[in-house]
Amino acid sequence: MKRITMLLVAAVLAAALSACVPQSQPQSASSVPDASSVPSASSAQSAPDTPSAPSAPKGPEGASSAASAPAQPQQLMAQALDACVGFGPGEAGSSLKSAIAACALLDSAQELQAAQQDWADGFDRWYEQQEQERQELFWENWPALAALVRRLGPDTSVEQGLLESAGSPNHRDHYDEAAYEPMLQAIEARQPQAA
Asked: pLDDT for 76-102, tens place per residue?
């Protein structure tokens, strides 16, 4: 009796597993595209532009770089600056959030390689969109963030324990000073003076 029960259970499990596995078509010669199914250069030019997976902006010779390039740097700047206002000084976890924000600033500066004026313009656009409370919070956090950016920039291993505790938010072991100093100087030039 036990053998019959075990065989029935095994049969049910096998049937259940085979029902869960998607059926795949065997590969044949027909799955390889032939010359007639591959678009030619002339048909590719005449085909209308249809959106597909997002791609990186094309180089200077690419037509799409002019349309997509301005949005990306501003978006990267805004994301990095947003990370600077998600906490307040002295709050629980503020040192970890500061490390995350500092790495976001460093990563965006490294990726963008923007000039000081570009950072100034990007910061101004971002700052104008913030409520007063977030503007004030940014400037409360800024001195510690700027110091941490300058500390981490040349060698992130100086704060390895902090970065590991924060989830290793850095994407590099070091950052180019020529990339992050223009950002720091642009923001510091906009810091309100104490009344």
From this structure: 999 999 999 999 988 999 999 999 999
Angle of CA points 161, 163, 168, to nearest 5°: 125
- If you search the block for the tokens 């002019």, which residue do you land on? 66
Nearest to 180 by CA among 156, 157, 159, 154: 154
Residue whose structure tokens are 């791609």: 55
Residue 132 lies in a domain: yes
Q: How far is CA 36 from CA 30, 39, 47, in A?
A: 12, 8, 16
The span from the CA of 33 to the CA of 42, in Å, is 18
Q: How far is residue 14's CA from residue 20's CA, in Å, rounded to a whole number?
A: 10
Residue 167 lies in a domain: yes
Global pTM exceeds 0.85: no
Instruction: Decide if 41 is inside a domain.
Output: no
Structural domains in the chain (count): 1
Provide the residue type at 126 as one letter: W
Assess whether pLDDT exceeds 90 at residue 1: no
Among 111, 65, 67, 102, CA closest to 81: 102
146: domain range? Answer: 70-188
- Give the C-alpha distances (Å, rounded to integers) separating 87 from 94, 102, 134, 145: 6, 13, 10, 12
Instruction: Show Cβ contacts of residue 90 under 8 Å, excluding neighbours closer than 6 positions.
Output: none
79 domain residue, yes or no: yes
Lookup: tokens for 37 = 């199914």
